[in-house]
Design a protein that fits this description.
With 352 residues, this protein is α+β, with helices and mostly antiparallel strands. The protein has 9 helices and 13 strands. Strands 1, 2, 3, 4, 5, 6, 7, 8, 9, 10, 11, 12 and 13 form a 13-stranded mixed beta sheet that branches.
């Protein structure tokens, strides 16, 4: 084959791949999630599918959390199929489904959070007892029948990760609660070769907030500060709906243009973990809330290794971030929990 024909053929391949990727993006997250979910369920024989595919109305669809939970049987265990119990085909299909539900950025964060469990396993070996840190101890559950005309749900959950989706008639109508955590927040040991010292899975979620707080005038900081000490945990963790307490802190309208831009970037960092159409809808709702109705609240220290917390809340959303716990090596305030919730109602259930 001549060089000219080889170049022409390569160009056709590139153009076809580009067109296919454009079509994939235009299809929308709900459609790609449905296709991926059905392919995932098809990997299970009939006698195993019942554990992978539960009723949409199953009461545990709304029993979420990002803490370690016991394996069944037992109270409070997670439903669905654990990655460790999947064969290679099922694992590949599960991760394809997760990729469809998240953006490339979000998928990267989710898989790195899973990978950190391997580091925790090594760090906690000397503690004795049953070590439940496991990179494959994450559960995938499909609720209902993924179809173009129906309503169905998906959850992917394990330590420091709780992702919950509802798709109705091919459209993603709920992505909350969505929780991402990191222990350690900043990796300070090289116990696992693949995880480099200095790794920060949720870096921007912390550094952008610190940047915003550092830019506040004394008067602004006084108004933004909601407590001297941070709380011990994000509010309503594991509860079906977010707290309805009024938002506290400084109103976004009182921030300068640059400060408001930093706050916008911080909110976007949470939103862009999801596919482009979902991110767009999230940010359109935030824009509709308006700077006169969004507050930023801060508690704790700006110094590394000292506990801190913030909440960003508007009529449509609530973001909480907390870094107060030590990591598994004992380094203080190096353990993040963060969550995005829908003030109109999580799990596509209207908030009363």
């Amino acid at each position: 084959m001549s060089r000219r024909r080889i170049v022409a053929f390569a160009l056709v391949v590139v153009l076809c791949a580009s067109a296919a990727w454009s079509f994939f993006k235009l299809a929308g997250a709900g459609e790609t999630m449905m296709e991926a979910a059905n392919k995932y369920l098809a990997t299970f024989p009939t006698n195993e599918k019942a554990n992978a595919n539960l009723s949409y109305d199953d009461k545990q669809r709304i029993e979420w959390h990002f803490i370690p939970k016991p394996d069944p049987p037992g109270a409070g265990f997670r439903e669905g199929i654990k990655v460790r119990d999947m064969n290679s085909q099922q694992r590949a299909a599960a991760h394809t489904m997760l990729k469809a539900a998240l953006s490339e950025v979000g998928y990267g964060k989710a898989t790195k959070i899973m990978e950190l469990e391997g580091l925790l396993h090594e760090l906690e070996k000397s503690k004795g007892g049953k070590n439940i840190r496991d990179t494959e101890r994450y559960f995938f559950t499909v609720y209902g029948t993924p179809s173009p005309d129906g309503k169905w749900g998906l959850s992917v959950e394990g330590h420091h990760l709780s992702l919950n989706f509802v798709v109705d008639k091919g459209h993603v109508i709920s992505t909350t609660p969505s929780a991402f955590g990191a222990n350690p927040a900043i990796v300070k040991s090289d116990n696992v070769q693949s995880i480099k010292v200095g790794t920060r899975v949720l870096e921007k979620e912390e550094t952008l907030a610190l940047q915003l707080v550092a830019s506040l005038t004394p008067e602004q900081k006084k108004e933004a500060t909601i407590a001297d000490k941070p709380p011990s945990e994000v509010r309503n963790a594991g509860q079906p709906q977010p707290t309805t307490e009024p938002a506290k802190g400084i109103i976004a309208e009182k921030l300068t243009g640059q400060q408001r831009s930093t706050l916008q970037s911080l909110i976007e960092e949470y939103a862009k973990s999801f596919p482009a159409d979902v991110e767009k809808e999230r940010m359109e709702a935030v824009k509709k809330d308006g700077p006169a109705n969004i507050r930023f609240g801060w508690a704790g220290s700006e110094k590394q290794g000292e506990g801190r917390y913030y909440c960003i809340q508007g009529p449509s959303f609530q973001i909480e971030f907390i870094n107060v716990q030590p990591d598994s090596a004992g380094n203080p305030a190096n353990h993040i929990h963060s969550v995005w919730r829908d003030m109109r109602g999580d799990f596509a259930i209207p908030l009363k």
